[in-house]
Amino acid sequence: MKNKKILITVLSAILTGLSQHSYSIGFLAWFSLIPFLFVLSKLNSFKDAFKFSFIWGFIYHLLTIYWLAQNIGTIPIIALFSMLLTVFYLSFNTVLIVFIWYYLKKYYKKYNLLLIPIIWVSIEYVKSYGLLAFPWISLANSQLAYLYPIQIAEFTGIYGVSFWIVCLNTIIYSLLINQSIKKVYLLLVTFLFPWFFGYILYNNLDEYKLDDLNIVLIQPNIKLSDSRDYSKGNELLNKLIDKTKSAIDNNTDLVIWPEAALPFHNIKDGKTFNFIKKKLLINDNIKILSGDITFNNDKIYNSVVLFDYKGLKSIYNKQRPVPLAEQVPLSETFPALSNINLGVANYSSGKKDVLFDLEQYKFSSLICYESTFPEINRRHVNKGADFITFLVNDAWYTHGLEPEQHARQSIFRAIENRRSVLRCANTGISMIIDPSGDLIEKTKLNTEATITANIKGTDYKTFYTKFGNVFAQLLFIIMVALILKTLLRHEKNI
Q1: Which of 226, 262, 385, 416 lies 20 to 30 angstroms, CA to CA, from 379?
Q2: In a shared domain, residues 111 and 236
Q3: What is the tens place of the pLDDT at every residue in 225-247?
Q4: Do 235 and 351 fall into the same domain?
């Protein structure tokens, strides 16, 4: 029987992991948890709860982020170690979900299945904060092919979509073990409501209120090996300039270059700036947004810079360096750790939100990994960003799941805040996403490409933009209240 439970647990984890692999199979998440729920219903001890939850968590997270081991920018053994360490860490989120549920279920037998989506989303929310925050793996990300139901993110953020998925699974499971017409109705309402509500939201967006903006995105496709070859520095810069010159005209308002666009140059360097000005900044109106490496005293930052023919205008320093790859955790508290280099460099963390000015527009620009953090994006829009830009370098992963998985999460950032999203990626995938979540344009991976976009902005603020993750926070409060109530009840019975 135990072997059967293990196989069922593995099956559930595989199906759920596969739902994160492609737009076309996201529907697997609607029922992939059911086998796991069957195993959970048969648990007899915390030991079993740990065993089966860890197995599920390990397999699921391994299937979802195995690509961490394919990082070509570091030593293979370090890439493999980083992947296994991350999977191991994330697996304990599943263990925590099951432990809390197993502890509470005997006190709330009638509602024990309802507890699962509450606890699941609460833990998913909690793991998006803190030193080792990793919002990348959310059940919600499996649903990005279905634009209507994910429109609820305007109110609930991604956590409402995750809640919907877990609810579907628990209701179907409940129906399988105890059939009733009421449960059939409940299943139909639960499944269809986001579709109908999302359809209404999708077709009734607020009108844009700002004038057109002409933007050019350049995807230079600078390979990692070239970005580490100093002798190719001038060649790469000239190539980037030439590609930009052929794409712009007198109506261009903004040119966007990706993260790592200038691997051997710095805009603060007067020589580099004058070279770009002479060869490219022929129109006084054109501004360039680019990834750059900046220095401040003894600190180094992964940055975004905005400049025009007059010089540097604004700098944003990345607030969320990738743990282990861009920054060793706690290295800013314990400087000795900064000598460890597992990836690119040991960057310092930026401390300030920055909005860039462009005529009547204000916009945010975040770097790569930061695009997966809903809260950072919400904060920038709340401060006045009329549209969102992401500067990305996924050259670490020349093939596989990572670039696609990373890129499509930007759809949620558009829907949550009803802002156009412009994603400029070095090697791809670059995107233009409108406030409804529709992909206006998308480039291929590992190719040179140019996107010319004409966008409009809006100052409309969604419920999510104004109030944040109140849905997830409410679920978290409910979970904590139930735990405290149960602990008090347990103490009285002793």
Answers
A1: 262
A2: no
A3: 878 878 888 888 889 999 999 99
A4: yes
What residue numbers bound the domain in which 97 lies? 2-204
Q: For residue 354, give the DSSP letter.
A: -
What 3-state class would DSSP assign to 310? coil
Give the pLDDT score at 267: 84
Q: Which of the residue ranges 106-110, 135-139, 331-335 has the most confident prediction, judged by mean pLDDT?
A: 135-139
The CA-CA-CA angle for residues 299, 300, 304, to 5°, reads 130
- Residue 460 has what pLDDT? 86
* Total domains in the fold of the chain: 2
Please check the confidence at residue 2 and state whether its pLDDT lies above 80. Answer: no
Q: Is 484 helix (H, G, I), strand (E, B) or coil?
A: helix
Buried b (16+ CB within 10 A) or exposed e, 4-16: ebeebbbbbbbbb
Q: Which secondary structure element, helix H or strand E, spans residue 304, and what is its range?
A: strand 299-308
From start to end of 374-476, where are the E strands? Answer: 387-392, 421-425, 431-433, 439-442, 449-455
Cα–Cα dist 37/225, whole Å? 47
d(CA 213, CA 361) in angstroms, rounded, equals 9
Q: For the chain, how far is it from start to end, CA to CA, in angstroms? A: 34
447 within 8 A of 410, measured Cβ to Cβ: no
What is the token pair recorded at 158?
């991604």
CA atoms within 13 A of residue 222's CA, in its CB half-sphere: 31
Longest pairwise C-alpha distance within the chain? 81
Measured CA to CA, the distance from residue 383 to residue 202 in angstroms comes to 24
The pLDDT of residue 134 is above 60: yes
